[in-house]
Amino acid sequence: AQKITQTQPGMFVQEKEAVTLDCTYDTSDPSYGLFWYKQPSSGEMIFLIYQGSYDQQNATEGRYSLNFQKARKSANLVISASQLGDSAMYFCAMRDLGYSSASKIIFGSGTRLSIRP
Amino acid sequence: DTAVSQTPKYLVTQMGNDKSIKCEQNLGHDTMYWYKQDSKKFLKIMFSYNNKELIINETVPNRFSPKSPDKAHLNLHINSLELGDSAVYFCASSQTPEIRLDQPQHFGDGTRLSIL
Prior knowledge:
The complex is a heterodimer of chains A (117) and B (116). Chain A is mostly beta strands. Helices cover 0% and strands 52% of the residues of chain A. In chain A, strands 2, 5, 6, 10, 11 and 12 form a six-stranded mixed β-sheet that branches. In chain A, strands 3-9-8-7 form a four-stranded antiparallel β-sheet, with no helix packed on it. A two-stranded antiparallel ribbon of chain A has the order 1-4. In chain A, strand 10 (88-96) and strand 11 (105-107) form a beta hairpin. The model of chain A has no long low-confidence stretch (mean pLDDT 93). In chain B, the strands form two sheets. In chain B, strands 2, 4, 5, 6, 9, 10 and 11 form a seven-stranded mixed β-sheet that branches. Chain B has a four-stranded antiparallel β-sheet with strand order 1-3-8-7, with no helix packed on it. Chain B is globular, with a radius of gyration of 14 Å. Chains A and B meet through strand 5, strand 6, strand 10 and strand 11 of A and strand 5, strand 9 and strand 10 of B.
């Protein structure tokens, strides 16, 4: 069965420092995708970055990068040079092709990141 | 040019009432979803429709009935509202996952439902 685990309910980081948000996953499907979303206090869900199970390189999008370790089944989000506007909830999510059931995205429980000035 | 829009943004109502939340997407996506986010921020899928056909129904009470008149719309009707229904409900859309696994879901801004 699919499972996403985020073990850090909350984190505090000093502005301009880099931060790593942890995410581990479990699936029996060989084809899957991993997503990170940001949810600021205003409530909207913002897509940040994607990593496919067959991608050879770690995904990067601006200050966001994904540390993808397939053998460990981890997909940690790294935010470089954190900014005050990065304070938000961050969700890791996974979608597989759904060989055994309909494809769907499942979400982790989230990590609340707070950036200190 | 809102991509996924849902209305209303806030919904405050009495227990036992019936209410609907509407969702529309203009992205040309084939698949639409409803999620429930509880007070602990846990996000759980409720329903998924692909080209107006229900493909995911996740152990949601029968009081919740989605309706998709066309592939750009997915509405959620809730009968006999209960206190435990208080949550934020998100509509989302994406390309068909089996065709484009890498396509993210695009979310609406959410509907905050409060049951008195």
